[in-house]
Design brief:
The chain is α+β, with helices and mostly antiparallel strands. The chain has five domains: 219 residues, Beta Barrel (Thrombin, subunit H); 160 residues, Sandwich (Jelly Rolls); 57 residues; 165 residues, C8orf32 fold (Roll); 79 residues, Tetratricopeptide repeat domain (Serine Threonine Protein Phosphatase 5, Tetratricopeptide repeat, Alpha Horseshoe), CATH 1.25.40.10. 32% of the residues lie in helices and 28% in strands. The protein has 19 helices and 34 strands. The strands form six sheets. It has an eight-stranded antiparallel sheet with strand order 5-4-1-2-3-7-6-14. A seven-stranded antiparallel sheet has the order 15-18-27-20-21-22-23, with no helix packed on it. Strands 16-17-28-19-24-25-26 form a seven-stranded antiparallel sheet. The protein starts with 8 loop residues before the first helix and ends with a helix.
Length: 736
């Protein structure tokens, strides 16, 4: 296992069981004891088996699993079927979709979850006593393998196995994706287990959690309502307050909205929660509509209810409206006109200045209009949407007077002069057509040839713009990590890594969010709080109150390595959760450091005169003993724990390890240009990284850049790093 990535728990277990000795053969069950034939039993229980699915990291509906009714409004399933922090969908056997009101109970260790749904009269399946189910007993399993709803299969209990998850029922049965969460029943119709995993090496070996492990969750639930469970994309309540419905979410620094609001005309608001200004206000946002027939934009002068101004594109025009009440009869359209600076179907920047009696509106840096209106006083500001519009917003700003982010005329002139040689110039269409009409046939070929050249130029310019972004960011990151260790801003460096793939990441915004989290925790601490009290408050704030958790089902998603998305989604891998934990803790005065265990990054609490206390941020800030850390290193890093593995990592080493994660999960999944972005950045920070240098040479070869590849191979030959076959390197060099 490389670079701090670890195989998800369920996959590791599935691989582990492949090394078990074959299950003992058992005599065939005496089916004469069954109270119902299989066909009748399957027909009876199918109505109590449901389909369960969850949202993907991008918010779309993802693969489905199974669940079964255990109460009149309760559904049992596996935790990995619903995933932590995700939106959940439940579809009943009659194809009705019912809303999930809460995660009624859940147990990460046993991979179990119970959902409370908005339904009544569901028929629960009876629960058996899994401790009394004899080895060799026949059973029936119902699930949705590969999306085939209500599939029935028979098998036998092969054995009981002690595993990381506890005692498991080993069963001889064909298991496929979608079976997870389904019931395992005896032939009398009693549930004895919950299907949870399959072997990775054989189609007829599966495992189920004994039903007796589910019963304590039903007796003593730990309910979490969906508004608290949903962390993926949830708006930060410290920043935003949605009003009048609609579906607002935030990911990767962008706010998205969909679904009609509950206000008249589908109106919905999302108000900024910063302190309200009494004097002149300025606000700005960049937005994109899914359909120009829709409407979405800025809100200002809001009373927190029905009264506010709105400045927004609508049907291709820029509209300024004063909303004096709940319906269209209380609304006054102050301006509604087109503007040449507006770009339909593209990102557009709206800006408003609201003075006591005057409103000044801009679009993409140009004045749209200004007018006198004192109908509403200054108030709250934010975002709005209307009708069934889907819209995205980024770079929202508000203040008494906003700094101008536009490029200065002098800088713009220099840039234009530098790139003018690349930009083709054409005469007005009418003039050109008049000149060419007498030679239409050859002119067509000429124009198409010119268009081809222009397209090639456009591709080249886009590549140059991307490279300029990468080089600028890499230099910024290198400068940050070249400071003395105590002056390096690790949080900023980690956010710069996120900007490699997303130039829109607003680094100051996320720095402020982390400062705010630390301030929230600090406000709850007594003046004499010691390190133990602070650590408890930090863990409680992140993992209990705000739902941060380790990513399991989507472990290898690149978003887990982008710290801004980890902050937004409250889900990450060990190293990104550790960085967030450390950065907040250090703002509370805790002395924390990153500890690079093989295959699993943890946090170390440094205590004078005492051994470092290891903390696993991936597992909810669980304290680890040396023995537990050694077991973790053996399992995730495939090797023993060494003393040097417990030494604090430098901040540069932490960033290099994060980049290695991105490289590891991108190999064979992403185009060479993406890998080169990560490899170039890593080698700038660690020029001695021989493995990454060879990898970069191979990526350069794939792109036909043999000269650049040859330079990297030459470096390897000159430095002769251990573990490399020099003869093969020479062969590669000669081929180049």
């Amino acid at each position: 296992m490389q670079s701090g990535l670890r195989v998800p728990c369920l996959l590791w277990l599935a691989c582990w069981v492949a090394h078990l000795e074959p299950a003992s053969t058992c005599a065939a069950a005496d089916q004469n004891n069954a109270t119902l034939p299989v066909e009748a039993l399957a027909a009876r229980v199918k109505a109590s088996v449901v389909t369960v699915s969850h949202a993907s990291r991008a918010g779309a509906r993802e693969g489905s699993g199974t669940g079964f009714v255990v109460g009149t409004n309760l559904i049992a399933t596996c935790l990995h079927v619903i995933e932590e922090g995700r939106a959940i969908q439940v579809r009943l056997a009659d194809n009705r979709e019912v809303a999930v009101e809460a995660v009624h109970a859940w147990d990460r260790q046993r991979d179990l979850a119970v959902l409370r749904v908005k339904a009544a009269g569901l028929v629960p399946l009876p629960l058996g006593d899994s401790d009394k189910l004899p080895t060799g007993a026949p059973f029936l399993a119902i699930g949705n393998p590969m999306g085939l709803v209500g599939s029935v299969v028979q098998g036998v209990l092969s054995a009981r196995r002690e595993m990381e998850m506890g005692t498991m029922l080993q069963i001889a049965i064909p298991v496929e994706p979608g079976n997870s969460g389904g019931p395992v029943l005896d032939l009398k119709g009693n549930v004895h287990g919950v299907m949870t995993m399959k072997s990775m090496v054989t189609a007829n070996l599966g495992f189920a959690v004994p039903i007796n492990a589910l019963k304590p969750l039903l007796d003593k639930p730990n309910p979490t309502t969906m508004d608290r469970w949903l962390t993926l994309g949830r708006l930060n309540p410290r920043e935003w307050q949605p009003l009048m419905g609609a579906s607002w979410s935030q990911r990767a620094g962008r706010i998205s909205v969909s679904d009609p609001g509950s206000g008249f005309g589908g109106r919905a608001l999302c108000l900024w929660q910063a302190a309200q200004l009494d004097g002149a206000q300025e606000l700005e946002v960049t937005l994109k509509l899914d359909d120009e027939a829709g409407a979405a934009g800025l809100v200002f002068g809001s009373d927190g209810d029905q009264r506010h101004y709105g400045f927004y594109p609508s049907a291709g025009k820029l509209r300024l409206t004063r909303f004096d009440g709940p319906t269209v009869f209380n609304w006054v359209i102050l301006k509604d006109q087109a503007h040449p600076a507006y770009r339909p179907g593209d990102w557009n920047t709206l800006r408003v200045r609201h003075e006591k009696q005057q409103i000044i509106c801009h679009i993409n840096g140009q004045l749209a209009y200004q007018l006198d209106d004192g109908g509403l006083p200054h108030g709250k500001v934010g975002l709005a949407k209307f009708r069934d519009t889907k819209a995205q917003f980024r770079n929202f700003r508000a203040g008494a007077q906003l700094a101008d982010l536009a490029t200065t005329p002098e800088a713009l002139a220099l840039i234009t002069k530098a790139v003018d040689g690349w930009e083709p110039r054409a005469e007005a269409d009418a003039v050109l057509m008049a000149r060419l009409k007498t030679n239409a046939a050859p002119a067509q070929g000429l124009l198409r040839s010119r268009a081809d050249r222009m397209e090639e130029q456009a591709r080249h310019l886009r590549a140059l713009a991307q490279r300029l972004h990468e080089t600028s960011l890499q230099n910024d990151l290198h400068a940050e990590l070249s400071k003395p260790e105590e002056k390096i801003n690790l949080l900023r460096a980690a956010l710069l890594v996120s900007r490699l793939d997303n130039p829109d990441v607003d680094v100051p915004h996320y720095l402020g969010l982390v400062d705010g989290m630390a301030a929230d925790i600090q406000s709850t601490l007594p003046a004499d709080a010691n390190a133990t009290v602070k650590l408890a408050a930090l863990g409680r704030h992140l993992f209990e109150q705000n739902g941060y958790h380790g990513s399991r089902g989507d472990y290898y998603h690149r978003a887990n390595s982008y710290l801004n998305e980890v902050i937004d989604d409250r889900e990450g891998i060990p190293i990104t959760l550790a960085v967030l934990y450390m950065e907040i803790g250090q703002r509370l005065g805790l002395k924390l450091a990153g500890i690079p265990l093989p295959g699993h990054f943890v946090v170390g609490h440094l205590r004078p005169g005492q051994p470092v206390q290891l903390i696993d941020a991936y597992d909810g800030a669980r304290l680890l003993s040396r023995a537990e850390a050694a077991a973790l290193a053996r399992r995730e890093g495939d090797g023993p724990l060494r003393d040097q593995d417990l030494e604090p990592a430098t901040k540069r080493a932490i960033i290099v390890r994060m980049l290695r994660n991105l490289i590891s999960i991108s190999n064979d999944r992403e185009p060479p240009a993406t890998l080169l972005r990560y490899l170039d950045t890593l080698l700038l920070l660690d020029p001695t990284a021989a493995g990454e240098r060879l990898n970069r040479a191979l990526m350069q070869m794939k792109l036909g850049r043999n000269a650049a590849a040859k330079e990297d191979v030459q470096w390897l030959l000159d430095h002769d790093p251990p573990g490399f076959n020099r003869e093969r390197l020479l062969e590669l060099f000669q081929r180049l």
